[in-house]
Amino acid sequence: MTAIDPAVAELARWLEQARRIVVFTGAGISTESGIPDFRSPGGLWSRLRPVPFQEFLASEDARRAAWALTLSLHARLTSIEPNRGHRAVAELARRGRLTAVITQNIDGLHQRADPAQAVIELHGTSAYACCLDCGARYEIEPIRQVFETQGRVPYCTHCGGPVKAATISFGQAMPQAAMAAAERATRDADLFLVLGSSLVVHPAAGLVGLAKRAGARVVIVNREATDYDVIADLVIGGDIGAVLGAALAVD
Ligand code: APR
Ligand code: ZN
After folding, report:
1. pLDDT exceeds cutoff 60 at 2
2. Which of the two ends of the chain, N or C, has the fewest CB atoms closer than 10 A to its terminal CB?
3. Which residues, by Cβ under 5 Å, contact ligand 2, an ion?
């Protein structure tokens, strides 16, 4: 994909014209940093099984499997950096056009690309853990130490409740404040830019339809087709770093 590509040139024009851009990202924006996504060929869900929330609550074995997955993903995050796609999103913020970054990702790369960036994390974060009963916060590294040396999963030192990474698992309630903020920003957007999501997980994916109904231009940049392409105003099949980097002249 090059800057002279007509679709990229159109995207560049729309980004220039827009005043209230909402960026909505999925795992696809982080693959160029070396983190596999979930549903591409060879993606995480082709090799690992997510632990549904009810199973996590019901059995210590499920909690052990979930913590093994969390800690292996978390270990990768220490050696990766934001990529050109994250830097291009930060450029939109620098130009004063970006009203929100809504992400399904738990890797914190948007915040590392632009620490001033307010990011709405719809699926939580892997940066810390919480007690599911009293909400007490726990740092990951001490949990890793005990898990890796004694094989023990964490329980709350205040109330004994189960401690889980602060990510949202399948079957777990969405974070209400984050969802409300995402819906507000989406309703107010004049351009809704989807970057690297298969748009198959709800309610997050439903924001694309909400943006369209609210009158925003919808742009989808994704390697593969999605079910929402049919309502998008512009669909660009390509790598986010190359497409958005070229549209915004960001390396
Ligand atoms: N550039 C453009 N598109 C890309 C790139 C890239 N560099 N890398 C991957 N993609 C595309 C893939 O083609 C795929 O369609 O990004 C999409 C990623 O889709 P998923 O792997 O399904 O990830 P995501 O949409 O974020 O999943 C949503 O599902 O399992 C849950 O909680 C998890 O937040 C996640 C949610
Ligand atoms: Zn507790």
Report:
1. no
2. C
3. 131, 133-134, 136, 156, 158-159, 161
Structural Rg of the chain based on CA atoms: 19
Q: Which ligand 1 atom minimizes the distance to the CA of 240?
A: 1
Question: Which residue of 29, 38, 101 sits with most ligand 1 atoms within 8 Å of its CB, as the best mutation to test the pocket?
Answer: 38
- Residue 59 predicted with pLDDT over 90: yes
Q: Kindly indicate the confidence band of residue 118, based on its pLDDT and cuts at 50, 70 and 90.
A: confident
CA distance 208 to 38: 20
Q: pLDDT category, 201, cuts 50, 70, 90?
A: very high
CATH entry 3.40.50.1220 includes domain 1-35+82-123+174-251: yes
Cα(127) to centroid(ligand 2), Å:
18
The domain ranges of the chain are 1-35+82-123+174-251, 36-79+125-167
Alpha-carbon distances of 147 from 72, 95, 150, 155, rounded to whole Å: 12, 45, 6, 12
Distance 142 CA to ligand 2 centre (A): 16
Ligand 1 binding pocket, CB closer than 6 Å: 26-28, 31-32, 37-40, 43, 104, 123, 196-198, 200-201, 222-224, 239-240
Task: Please report, to the nearest 10 degrees, the dihedral formed by the alpha carbons of residues 132, 134, 139, 143 taken in order.
Answer: -60
User: Which of 101, 114, 117 lies closest to 193 in space, CA to CA?
Assistant: 101
Give the tens place of pLDDT for each residue, 60-116.
999 999 999 999 999 988 899 999 999 999 999 999 999 999 999 999 999 999 999
Sign for the CA dihedral angle at 56, 166, 144, 159 comes to: negative
Give the chain's mean pLDDT.
96
In CATH, what is the architecture of 36-79+125-167? Answer: 2-Layer Sandwich (3.30)
